[in-house]
Amino acid sequence: MAAVVPTLKLNSGRDMLQLGLGTWQSQPGEVTKSVIIAIEAGYRHIDGARIYQNEPEVGAAIKAKIDDGTVKREDLFVVSKLWDNAHRPDCVLPAIKKTLSDLGLEYLDMYLIHWPMGLQPTDELIPRDANGDCIIDNETNLIDTWKQMEELVKLGLTKSIGVSNFNSQQIQNILDNGTIPPSNNQIEMHPYFIQTKLVEFCKEKGIVVTAYSPFGCPTHPSAKPGDPKLLEEPKLIEIGKKYGKGPNHVILRWLLQKGVVTIPKSVTKSRIIDNFNVFDFTLTDEDIKAVESLDKGRDGRINTELFLKKSKDYPFDIEF
Ligand SMILES: NC(=O)C1=CN([C@@H]2O[C@H](COP(=O)(O)OP(=O)(O)OC[C@H]3O[C@@H](n4cnc5c(N)ncnc54)[C@H](OP(=O)(O)O)[C@@H]3O)[C@@H](O)[C@H]2O)C=CC1
Ligand SMILES: O=C1CO[C@H](CO)[C@@H](O)[C@@H]1O
């Protein structure tokens, strides 16, 4: 029998499963199979986004597993994200409708504003000018976007709403000016970038944190040969050995014990199954300290999204 995944209570009143499957860089030709494998292994939380350009294939897997009786829709926690080119108020409803239609679903469990920065609303997901530079939309206003996100809840198109890659000031702005508080902030978090201040801030405000790139995204487009690899860190390997576990398990277990959600990505059957084997051991306080000693502070951030640094809403210029 698959392990029961713990949940965290959202301020929307719903429960969010603490372990899910990431799907960025899961190619359309492979993601249906990997989501099917994940559901068969016990995963019930799937993290996706319009920009991953694989939502129809993720949806095909969900349909297959509902049709064959493995799961019911209500057993699943499906997350998607509003892409940067749809921040203008009139773009938000069409954007979720496109995602729902691609996924073949009536509703999402969580819909996030993917990044605070807006891009020009065109048919291109990443609109570029003649020089190849992204066309930033500095006319957008995150409160206007958020108000439309609130409408999606009222329309029953998503059960909860949240943000991703928002800094503390941007979150506070929404708390001060919105009606529905964000339930979730999905941020980069792994042993090289432990984000203590932002995680604490979110917790104080009743916002559940999701840790993305838990393994440090070894295939990130900015990765260079010779970069240190989290999954090869001797310290993590050593901690894992005490429990008969690998460095992947140590990282996921650390995140679970920190009280956050995490969404490791894999398209490899053995890894999808292996990453789920984290519910039968507990790290000690000493182990947790050793994991956190790998933190590089702000230098540990991988997903810098530097190509949008000129946006008025670029989030990473303040401490947290
Ligand atoms: N909100 C946001 O802005 C962002 C959200 N995300 C979300 O977070 C998810 C996870 O982050 P992501 O950046 O993809 O990277 P991860 O840190 O999850 O690493 C994924 C990589 O690790 C490999 N891997 C997975 N399990 C193992 C294992 N047990 N042993 C060895 N290698 C392993 C995978 O290979 P393989 O697949 O070949 O098995 C893949 O190359 C994304 O897929 C996405 O859903 C990510 C980035 C930004
Ligand atoms: O989720 C994501 C994966 O990577 C993309 C490319 O940098 C990001 O835009 C996005 O945050």
UniProtKB/TrEMBL annotation:
<dbReference type="GO" id="GO:0016491">
    <property type="term" value="F:oxidoreductase activity"/>
</dbReference>
<dbReference type="InterPro" id="IPR023210">
    <property type="entry name" value="NADP_OxRdtase_dom"/>
</dbReference>
<comment type="similarity">
    <text>Belongs to the aldo/keto reductase family.</text>
</comment>
<dbReference type="InterPro" id="IPR020471">
    <property type="entry name" value="AKR"/>
</dbReference>
<dbReference type="InterPro" id="IPR036812">
    <property type="entry name" value="NAD(P)_OxRdtase_dom_sf"/>
</dbReference>
<protein>
    <submittedName>
        <fullName>Aldose reductase</fullName>
    </submittedName>
</protein>
<dbReference type="InterPro" id="IPR018170">
    <property type="entry name" value="Aldo/ket_reductase_CS"/>
</dbReference>
<feature type="domain" description="NADP-dependent oxidoreductase">
    <location>
        <begin position="19"/>
        <end position="295"/>
    </location>
</feature>
<keyword id="KW-0560">Oxidoreductase</keyword>
<feature type="active site" description="Proton donor">
    <location>
        <position position="52"/>
    </location>
</feature>
<dbReference type="Pfam" id="PF00248">
    <property type="entry name" value="Aldo_ket_red"/>
</dbReference>
<keyword id="KW-0521">NADP</keyword>
<feature type="site" description="Lowers pKa of active site Tyr">
    <location>
        <position position="81"/>
    </location>
</feature>
<feature type="binding site">
    <location>
        <position position="114"/>
    </location>
    <ligand>
        <name>substrate</name>
    </ligand>
</feature>
